Amino acid sequence: MEISKKRIVSDLRKIGLHEGDHVAVSVSFKSLGRVQGGPEGFIDALLEAVGSDGTLMMNTYTNFFTLTEIRLGRTDYVYDAGETRCYTGIISEKLRLRDDTVRSRHPTMSNAAIGRHAHFLLDDHDETADSFLPYSKLAEVNGKYLAVGIGDNLKGFRHHAQQQAGLLTIVPWKRAVLHKDRQGRINTFILKDRGGCPTRLPDLVKDLKEKGIVREGKIGMAQSIIVPAKESIERMSSLLKADPTLNLCDKPLCLWCREIELRLNLYQYIKNPKIFQRYKAAIYLFALINRLRELDNRLISRFKMILKKRKMFY
């Protein structure tokens, strides 16, 4: 059975999206069911829900590489805000392609938007800006964040909470990409604040639910949640500032989590610590392994680039 645009708009109204709202959306298209008009039909429904005075925004993230690859002269991929496809889903890609869409120039964490505040949200989001700046601006205009069919994973939005808590600059992240700037020149962009480990972040949404900040419902066939941007960011970032252990996953080889707990010396605050968090020998062993993994990644990148130049690797 096809789900009509009228039904989607009705579902959006029920969950709390209204005319004049400014909303960031992350969506699993397949979770919606068979939507009339496909991805374009869903975008049309979102735009009808927020109306001409509202704004619709989605992330349109793109690729990045090891710094070694870029320094070795990888020139087959250059980010161009007007041309480069995103990897964040078919609906984000369809939104990006619309004639009336504004897209930010950030070389890896771009967003696309249509509506009243599209330029306000995105015009300053370029290679000089924080990766998650559009979410700060969304909070300024009392916007909302809608997650459709992805559980409690507030994608992109949740990493802004990590950023506000000061957690994203602690562990160095040597990744980069070539990009075309406003003057059409090609430059190297080095990514400094990619989002940290997301494994535990859905737990923060449980707290938001307990505080009555979250509204839940169904959009088409997809379980969905909607949250106010400002209140949610303030709550999640304050929780992470007060207790960074809330963000630590249980994977021994998670570079980001293991480095965060080591650099901030969080071991005495971790509830029910694992073996690799309990003993100094294990702590330093996994720290060494993770450093070797990063070194290995760079070596592999160098090897691939050499082979590619010799046309031995495709």
Question: Explain this structure to me?
Answer:
The protein is of the alpha/beta class. The protein folds into two domains: 5-243, no CATH class; 248-314, no CATH class. It has helices spanning 5-15, 38-50, 67-71, 90-96, 118-122, 133-140, 157-164, 202-210, 229-242, 255-263, 275-278, 280-309, and strands at residues 22-27, 55-59, 65-66, 78-79, 102-103, 111-115, 144-148, 175-180, 186-191, 215-219, 222-228. Helix 10 (255-263) packs across helix 12 (280-309). The longest helix has 30 residues, at 280-309. The mean pLDDT is 91.
Please outline what is shown here.
By secondary structure, the protein is an alpha/beta fold. It has helices at 5-15, 38-50, 67-71, 90-96, 118-122, 133-140, 157-164, 202-210, 229-242, 255-263, 275-278, 280-309, and strands at residues 22-27, 55-59, 65-66, 78-79, 102-103, 111-115, 144-148, 175-180, 186-191, 215-219, 222-228.
Order of neighbouring strands in the sheet with most strands: 5-6-2-1-7-11-10
- Name the poorly predicted regions: none
- As a whole number of angstroms, the C-alpha radius of gyration is 21 Å
The number of distinct structural domains comes to: 2
Number of helices: 12
Shape: globular
